[in-house]
Design goal:
Number of strands: 14
Protein name: Argininosuccinate synthase
Strand content: 15-25%
Oligomer: single chain
Organism: Stenomitos frigidus ULC18
CATH topology of the largest domain: Argininosuccinate synthetase, chain A, domain 2
Number of domains: 3
Number of helices: 14
CATH superfamily of the largest domain: Argininosuccinate synthetase, chain A, domain 2
Order of helices and strands: EHEHEHHEHEHHEEEEEHEEHHHEEHHH
Structural class: alpha/beta
Subcellular location: Cytoplasm
Strand order of the largest sheet: 3-2-1-4-5
Pfam families: Arginosuc_syn_C (PF20979), Arginosuc_synth (PF00764)
Keywords: Amino-acid biosynthesis, Arginine biosynthesis, ATP-binding, Cytoplasm, Ligase, Nucleotide-binding
CATH architecture of the largest domain: Alpha-Beta Complex
Helix content: 40-55%
Shape: elongated
Length: 400
């Protein structure tokens, strides 16, 4: 760990990142700590966070409103790629990390800092995401990781902060570790560490309890242009407003809850609970629209790309040559993914019940079994003969 004079610290207002401020200055000899809190639509009032950083010893406390960039430049490309880690998690937290890393590096350049810092521990994925993203954006800048190296328990960390006037929590109001932004909430720890324990209702805030969901279904129509969500129920909506509105609509029906055993990059299995109402339904609707507008070979090939894409994002490789190349493929594949999808929301379920597109390659005349059928049935015999020839020849040679 190299020494630094001026540091930009990714700041949340929690115990660890608050203690990072005096720790960097008193233990590692940093002369000035600038904090940066990223507003990614999490709904928290960030002015108290800004003030707490100053009270904890920061010389400057920055709050960056990056919600629009978060949705447009990170969430929407992931939706185009149908990015679901291990076919379940739509990467709501993972997508935020490369953006925060960019904000850190940009702030360091603006304020002349020679290092950036974060409060990640050594067991999670976020340390990898931050470190690798920062290195990709500025390979020459130092990355300081005090919480990964100080070796203090939580009680010791709180006591250390109190020595420098950082107020300790009166009580641990929740046993859970929670990360949230506009795309969703990630909840872990506490009782959830037992994979047999059902998540209690109090861990959820974006989705209604199933018992409280409406007794009547609700339909929502989502419009896409080249794979990008652009409208709700026929009305054009700006990106942040679209996700915000869809979170409320979908969450009210208890849709968007995920409970999974997740394989972390560092080799640990963890039990994770997520709430991602809008993001989950947007990916579901988008994938369905692709089934109407893309050729079979493109759909099948893209499924493998999607799995690779999801792993790259989860593993902190947003700023990598491979993701750039995959993005080019995904963008090309989306040229005709324009249309609308109708989703039925009811008692924890989201079901696609309709889709339409000017670029549809579904032909009712070919698909029908009615009098309107235009499919040449006689052509099937020759097709089957050619298609089955390798299998037939293989079977014949095996009998010799």
């Amino acid at each position: 760990m190299g020494r630094a004079k001026k540091v930009v610290l990714a700041y949340s207002g929690g115990v660890d990142t608050s203690v990072c401020i005096p720790y960097l200055m008193h233990e590692w000899g940093v002369e000035e700590v600038i904090t940066l809190a990223a507003d990614l639509g999490q709904g928290d009032e960030l002015e108290p966070v800004r003030e707490k950083a100053l009270k904890s010893g920061a010389s400057i406390s920055l709050v960056a409103d990056a919600t629009a960039d978060f949705v447009k430049d990170y969430a929407f490309p992931a939706i185009q790629a149908n990015a679901l880690y291990e076919n379940q998690y739509p990467l709501s937290t993972a997508l935020a990390r490369p953006l925060i890393a960019k904000l850190l590096v940009d702030a360091a350049a603006e304020y002349g800092a020679d290092a950036v810092a974060h409060g990640c521990t050594g067991k999670g994925n976020d340390q990898v995401r931050f470190d690798v993203a920062i290195a990709a954006l500025n390979p020459d800048i130092k990355v300081l990781t005090p919480a990964r190296e100080w070796g203090m328990s939580r009680e010791e960390t709180i006591a250390y902060g109190e020595r420098f006037g950082i107020e300790s929590p009166v009580k641990k109001s929740s046993p859970y570790s929670i990360d949230k932004n506009l795309l969703g909430r990630a909840i872990e720890a506490g009782p959830l560490e037992d994979p047999w324990t059902e998540p209690p209702e109090d861990v959820y805030t974006m989705t209604a309890a199933l018992a409280d969901a409406p007794d009547q279904p609700e339909y929502v129509e989502i419009g896409f242009e080249q794979g990008i969500p652009v409208s709700l129920n026929g009305k054009t909506v700006e990106p942040v407003a679209l996700v915000t509105a869809l979170n409320q609509i979908v969450g009210a029906h208890s849709v968007g809850r995920i409970d999974m055993i997740e394989n972390r990059l560092v080799g640990i299995k963890s039990r994770e609970v997520y709430e991602t109402p809008a993001l989950s339904v947007l990916i579901q609707a988008h994938r369905d629209l692709e089934s109407l507008t893309l050729t079979p070979d493109l759909i099948h090939y893209k499924r493998g790309i999607e799995e690779t894409y999801s792993r790259l994002v989860y593993n902190g490789l947003w700023y990598s040559p491979l993701r750039d190349a995959l993005d080019a493929f995904v963008k090309k594949s989306q040229e005709r993914v324009t249309g609308a999808v109708r989703v039925k929301l009811f008692k924890g379920n989201s079901i696609v019940v309709g889709r339409k597109s000017a670029y549809s390659i579904y032909s009712p005349e070919l698909a029908t079994y009615g009098a309107e059928d235009t499919f040449d049935h006689k052509a099937a015999e020759g097709f089957i003969y050619v298609w089955g020839m390798p299998t037939r020849v293989w079977a014949q040679t095996g009998r010799q």
